[in-house]
Amino acid sequence: MIPTRRPRVLLADDHLLVAEALKSLLAPEFDLVGVVEDGRALVEAAGTLRPDVIVADITMPHLNGIDALIQLRQGGDRVPVVFLTMHRDASFARRALEAGASGFVLKHSAPAELVSAIRAALEGKTYLTPQLAGEVFESMRESPEKGGDSLGSLTPRQREVLQLAAEGQSAKQIAASLSISPRTVEFHKYQMMETLGLHSNAELIHFAIKHGLVER
């Protein structure tokens, strides 16, 4: 009898202790094909390793998990993505689901929920932690249009610039990372301030922290 192939999981989390704990949790049922520590590495590894499912944090360096998912979808990759995060705010779960996530689990619930969420994702279903389900559905009912929060009013490129700026990179460093000019970086920052009604780089950084693009 030919043994059934175990589902292949790619893990994206910049906290090594969390990654190690998740390895133990997933080992009995899944093959862990890779561990990456930032959103850009996630997009690259998804293309080379071709996992059956991705488990990702939201707040990661260089590119956050939700924008990494958006890049995957824009590139035609339909791999299921389950987010595992500390963020208990329903707006994060809504953003994740609207971006195409298959699951949203809080880290402290991982032992009880993560395997179930991965199984659901592999079956083409969506798993949302019960702790936030009511709030998320209420939010969608009250404001059904996409982009229910102000972060959704920014373009993917603007969010990339914002995250890198909040991580402390200069306009020149951001330009080199994204293969654009420093002047374009400054223009993106100006446009974001106009869109969000902000007046300084400091307010932009505070906005990025509030919306989970970087850790506090």
Topology at a glance:
Blueprint lengths: L7 E5 L3 H11 L4 E6 L2 H11 L3 E4 L8 H10 L6 E5 L4 H10 L3 E4 L3 H13 L4 E2 L1 H13 L13 H11 L4 H8 L3 H15 L4 H10 L6
Parallel strand pairs: 1-2, 1-3, 3-4, 4-5, 5-6
Helix pairs in contact: 2-3, 4-6, 7-9, 7-10, 8-9
Word description of this protein:
The termini are far apart. This protein has 216 residues and is an alpha/beta fold. The longest helix is centred in the last third of the chain and has 15 residues. The protein contains 10 helices and 6 strands, in the order βαβαβαβαβαβααααα. The chain is globular, with a radius of gyration of 18 Å. Strands 2-1-3-4-5-6 form a 6-stranded parallel beta sheet, sandwiched between helices.
Kindly estimate the percentage of residues that lie in beta strands according to DSSP: 5-15%
Through-space gap between termini: 52 Å
Q: What is the rounded Rg?
A: 18 Å
Helix/sheet category: alpha/beta
- Oligomeric status of the shown chains? single chain
Helix amount, in percent?
Answer: 40-55%
DSSP strand count: 6
Strand-and-helix sequence, N→C?
A: EHEHEHEHEHEHHHHH
Mean pLDDT: 90
Question: Could you say which overall geometry the principal axes of the C-alpha atoms support?
Answer: globular
Biggest sheet: strand arrangement: 2-1-3-4-5-6
Largest sheet: 6 strands, parallel
Contiguous runs where pLDDT drops below 50 for at least 5 residues: none
Structure annotation, total helices: 10
